[in-house]
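Whether sequence alone determines local backbone shape is best considered at the level of individual chains. We regard such an encoding as a compact summary of how the chain folds. The sequence in question and its structure tokens are set out directly beneath this paragraph.
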Amino acid sequence: MAVETKPQIFVAEPWAAQEHKGGSEELGVEYPVSKDSDLSSLLQEFPEGGLAAWSTAFGAFLIMFCTWGYTASFGVYEDFYTRHYLTNETSFAISSIGSLTGFLGSAGGIISGSLYDRGYFYHLVITGSLLQSFSLFMLSLAKPHQYYQIILTQGLGSGIAVGLLYVPGMAIISHYFRQKRTLVMSFVSLGASSGSLVHPIMLNNLLNGHLGFANGVRASAGLTSMLLLIACLCVRTRLDPPTTPVNYIATARKCLRYVPFLFAISGAFIFKTGFYYPTYFLQLDSIKHGINTSFSFYTLVILNASSCAGRITSGYIAAFTGVLNLTMIAAISCGSVILAMMGLRTLASVAILGALYGYFSGVYTAMEGPLVATLARNPSELGGWMGIYFFLDAFGSLLGPPICGVLLTSHFIWWKPALFAGIASLTGAAMYAFMRLVYTRLQKNES
């Protein structure tokens, strides 16, 4: 006999009481329950493990590997386009390709987050995977000095694909985990670092080897397509979508009236203006300073290997420092290292600065999802809050690299973009500090 349900609400834990150390505690989530439900069954709403949970986490890991992992490898393309393939284009034009991918990847969250909340998870994952594969194969057909072909395939096509996949890939973790959510989200975000470790090695050896651009990109597209197919087979939803989908207009109003979130998105926008400078320009910077080319090809590998370490350790560190505190510390550290890049001259300085920046940027990136989850006032609107956050911070990634390219000029004056990016990142970190201060005061008042 069907069990009659009533619109009662069980609160797993008080929302206002979840944060005492800047976000180290996990989210309280509300569930509709039947009159015959008991506490034991409610606590089992989150499996916290099992085959379906971990296969979904692994699939989300592969999604990050093939989307942001590939996007973070744009520094290889930046160097190759500047020195070989698009020699008639400015640094501004070339860096705009990568910034467009990053912008659409983040800004697309406003659409994919909304569709995810409406139950279109599989549509998003399959469509995004097919588009990413198609875009990379079409990139392999682009001819030298044909800028429009490259920006349409790599900038526009791949950027839209990343935007369709990112928010669903992160948000699906909330179907299976509550106690371990920050830790598992850190594991999923590790996919981006792992991808940005593998792809640069592969691309540098393929593009600069005997295969050349067309066959090299084709080979990387084949690997990406295979991994995305595996991801599509692994990920599974567990919960039904909300009966009433998130109203993004109402959610946006709520977000912008919540002062800590307002500081968070302001900080993210300003911080992202400088955030991608090392990722896009470190390899080219190293080569132009006369450092061994073979070593320079591995500068992004050093950076991204350290980023892996940062993402791995971030979940454990956040358990002690809190998500908000760790985000602020990572942002300050990133800005300081970018400023130090004005002194980049030797092989040792490249290795040290690349390793330091990689680690702190990995910590920061791993904390973005848990940061929004901590600030969201209503957990049922998490997809909406994440979509709005990543949409607004995407404008920083759109503007930052081209501005750095303009400051760099054709004479490669390196201190100017490093100074700009460093100051922008530290200013963003200051916004995160204000966010932490206001959030703490609000929590004290509510308690």
User: Anything to note?
Assistant: Residues 1-43 have pLDDT under 50 and may be disordered. The two ends are 43 Å apart (CA to CA). Residues 246 and 381 are 6 Å apart (CA to CA). The longest helix spans residues 415-446.
